């Protein structure tokens, strides 16, 4: 059964871009599909209905099958697939308002890469907890997904993870566009943890760049960051192999290396001496790693996983560790085998 009616909640860069992917995928396969974006900003919504999202995607044209509304009930009417691309920390409160509007039997997909502060829940868990959607009807999309590059139709691969393999394949087919190639996985935990922790590691890489450190330093942080991400994912029931793929290494490299990455940008500003409170003066979008980092640390402590890079980043964000102390803190750890 084709997915012909889709609601996308979030009119930012990634929500809008994924709506475009879904429209382009339908056009390429000859499927008639409507995609309705929900957003809270009337100006952005009006712009999308003029087939642009100037604030986030500049002059990139949006397909005519993508429309937008500020009314969640209108967005959700008859939706077979509901996609969430809102800031992670706002999801619970928003879902409490929306849950009665989600059509029975609708499939839900999360594009969000964060942990909920306070509960340390992954986004798929928040969706299940608040909206009552069974886990087998919740999927996540993760990978090296820098929105602007995808909006420009630059070739990209990603992962659709769902406990139901058949549903994962159905969703992958629904978003397979000429420039967007999704793979499937049943490892929701690994895909989500990879997407969450890479933001924290990207903050650290950005700090190193802001301080003028070279590629050796950044490569070291990326490699050891992948190791601690994998340890956490495995401790939570994920598959280590997932973290060596697109939802792990692929996402980590893209986020740590690209100037388009919000978390890399935020880290760079911190490395240059700006405070967390000053980041909003230089960035228009949220760097999820800043909010998620403390939750990642708490989750790791609870399951007994060492995450020294995460601990150091949290220290910087909380003002307990000076940026200039970061390298000393990371290099002063006890000598051990790399495999430990």
Structural descriptors:
340 residues, alpha/beta, Rossmann fold, N-(1-d-carboxylethyl)-l-norvaline Dehydrogenase, domain 2, eight-stranded mixed β-sheet, 16 helices, 8 strands, 12% strand
Would you mind describing this structure in some detail?
- This protein has two domains: 182 residues, Rossmann fold (3-Layer(aba) Sandwich); 143 residues, N-(1-d-carboxylethyl)-l-norvaline Dehydrogenase, domain 2 (Orthogonal Bundle).
- 49% of the residues lie in helices and 12% in strands.
- The protein contains 16 helices and eight strands.
- Strands 3-2-1-4-5-6-7-8 form an eight-stranded mixed β-sheet, sandwiched between helices.
- Helix 5 links the parallel strand 4 and strand 5.
- The longest helix has 23 residues.
- The model has no long low-confidence stretch (mean pLDDT 94).
Q: Write down the CATH class of the largest domain.
A: Alpha Beta
- What is the name of the CATH topology of the largest domain? Rossmann fold
The SS-based structural class is alpha/beta
Rounded mean pLDDT is 94
- Mind telling me the C-alpha Rg? 19 Å
Helix content: 40-55%
Largest sheet: 8 strands, mixed
Classified in CATH, the superfamily of the largest domain is NAD(P)-binding Rossmann-like Domain
Q: How many helix segments? A: 16
Proportion of beta-strand residues: 5-15%
End-to-end separation:
47 Å
What is the number of strand segments? Answer: 8
The secondary-structure element order is: EHEHHEHEHEHEHEHEHHHHHHHH
CATH architecture of the largest domain: 3-Layer(aba) Sandwich
Looking at how many chains there are and whether they match, the oligomeric state comes to single chain
The global form is globular
Model regions low in confidence, pLDDT < 50 over at least 5 residues:
none
Number of domains: 2
